[in-house]
Amino acid sequence: MRTEQELARLCTAGDREAQGELYAMYASRLYALCFRYVADRDEAQDLMHDAMIKAMDSFKSFSYSGEGSLYAWLRRLTVNVIIDRLRQMSKLRMVALDSTIEPGNYDAQDNAADNIPAQVLLDMVAQLPSVKRTVFNMYCIDGFSHKDIATAIGITEKGSASILAKARAQLKSAVNDYLKRTGR
């Protein structure tokens, strides 16, 4: 198996074998990333393929900066592909400013989610409406700032923070419902 740096160099040169190795190495992780945003297996597969194609066409813009930088670049590129697709599908819309709420303070009860299986939590995130799911994923899982989210999906930073607070509130409610149902 090649190093990230060697793989990136070969992919930049258009080496098909290296491109296949890159695909094999990262396709499943990128698919999981796509699925978190769209919650549809076929759509996630299409997005992952589109992101890989875009990566192969964009390798000249990649600059290796240490171990992990190749995946970080692929992940960022994939999120951009996802957001572009969601915009095209009109699933990301501006939220009226009068519907904003301030981010809330979360108490110690929020640790209750630690007792829920990871797949159940992922399913809860997948059930969020698309705008909430996108903002939640970008902020909480992929580490984007509210400024980056606002720029990417065409809302204000305050709107991003508001949507995140609403997503967290909805997830908190889902967690509480799950805990009551399962008696945990």
Helix content, binned percent: 55-70%
Q: Structural class per helix/strand content? A: mainly alpha
**Run of helices and strands:** HHHHHHHH
Flag low-confidence runs: 92-110
Mean pLDDT: 84
Compute the number of helices. Answer: 8
Based on Cα principal axes, name the global outline: globular
Q: Rg from C-alpha positions? A: 18 Å
Q: How much β-strand is present in the residues?
A: under 5%
Main β-sheet: number of strands, strand sense, barrel status? none
Give the termini separation.
44 Å
* Count of distinct strands: 0
Q: SSE layout and pairings?
A:
Layout: H1 4-12, H2 16-38, H3 41-58, H4 69-88, H5 118-126, H6 130-141, H7 146-153, H8 157-182
Give the gist of this structure.
With 184 residues, the protein is mostly helical. 68% of the residues lie in helices and 0% in strands. The longest helix has 26 residues, at 157-182.
